[in-house]
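Notes, p. 3: input format for complexes.
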Amino acid sequence: METNFVIPIELSSTQQNLMKAVRDLARLNFAPRAHAYDHAAVFPAEDFTDLFRAGLLAPVVPSEYGGLGLGPYRGDVLTLWLMTKEIAKADLSLARCWEGHTNSLVLIDGMGTHEQKERWFSGVVRRGEIWVAWSGEPQARASSERLQFGTTTTKVEGGYIVDGSKAFATSAGGAHWAILLVSTAGPGGARHSTDAVASQLLLACDLSDPSLSIDLSWWDPIGMRATASHVVRFNRTFIPDANLIGRPGQYLLDGWQTCFIPHYAATFLGAAEAAYEFAIEYVTSQSKEADPYIQQHIAQSAINVEAGYLWLYHVARMWETGRHAEAQMAGSRVRHTMEHLAEEVVKRCIRACGARSLNRPSPLERIYRDLSFYVRHDNDDHLLATIGKSLLGQQNDPSFHKP
Ligand SMILES: Cc1cc2nc3c(=O)[nH]c(=O)nc-3n(C[C@H](O)[C@H](O)[C@H](O)COP(=O)(O)OP(=O)(O)OC[C@H]3O[C@@H](n4cnc5c(N)ncnc54)[C@H](O)[C@@H]3O)c2cc1C
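Output follows (403 residues plus flavin-adenine dinucleotide):
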């Protein structure tokens, strides 16, 4: 059945071909595997192999380094976000791992040296290497937790020693490289640190280093299970100076995280569209089209999905036309708005379909769990407060929406 969205977004034939390649992979390969990855809570390795074989693993690597040349500072970010949306429709966990990978490559493109780009981009383009970025060092312990997270980073001859642990290390066991967001002033990563900006470093860590270990005992969440966001321990891991990305503090000072905040919204949109298409299929197969309540749930869901597209398009145009300061603030708005649009779609689709749509295995059941967990990645209360602070002329942090 046609989805019949009223969305005035026109794509070039190159963009359309790219979208078709991702959509076909997502529909035929990723969606059928999603249940098993979720059930076992393991990294979706075969999906990444498929992306590599299809020439899709380096979307934001510049064309001179063998990639597709997309990205917020490369004149076409909408195509990237729509690719992410297609992947998220099949599997939100895969979309998180993919976001982590592409966001890391954007950071290398924006802050890395030519030598670093040649070294690391060739690994992605030729050998299918997977990247991720790890900040995750929440400092206040959860009531159920016995572990305490945090790293220390010390300058030594020729490099740095990183010691300690990080939680929420997405793609642990699947990725080859991680950009570690650490601080020479102490634990907290970038997200939870209160230390001086200049102490923040981005260090590229080779994850095959024997000083690293993955603690599989912590990660057992309600959703996003296949992101394999385990606790990773660094036992005095040495990282050479050649792996320092950018200047100390540059990541925060240049607001790089604001490039990635609307990317979450693209994933939420994928969740909403997948739930909507599931519901259409479900209720039409039961011949329930005449029910007035179902009609309303379907109508509101379609409108929410359309609103999500329009918001993403709006923010993408800001990036693509060089209105970067506006785009940085608008990213928080689309992230906030899309969270609520998507959650409403999923709830309405559940109401339209009924209890059996939540009986496993059901894509809608997985989307419900995944979305409810994933929207915690950035606290919406602080996000909204950040927007309010900017409107009221108060100091604010649009990167991490800190209190
Ligand atoms: C699926 C998923 C994947 C993730 N992947 C990654 C990843 O790849 N890399 C990465 O770096 N991180 C990742 N994260 C982690 C994420 O960035 C946060 O670090 C993590 O969600 C923080 O833990 P928490 O949700 O328990 O929130 P907390 O930070 O503990 O926040 C919980 C509550 O406390 C409030 N709060 C927080 N700090 C303070 C404070 N100082 N004072 C007062 N109130 C406070 C918050 O506003 C919120 O209401 C991921 C998270 C999820 C859910």
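The longest helix spans residues 324-353.
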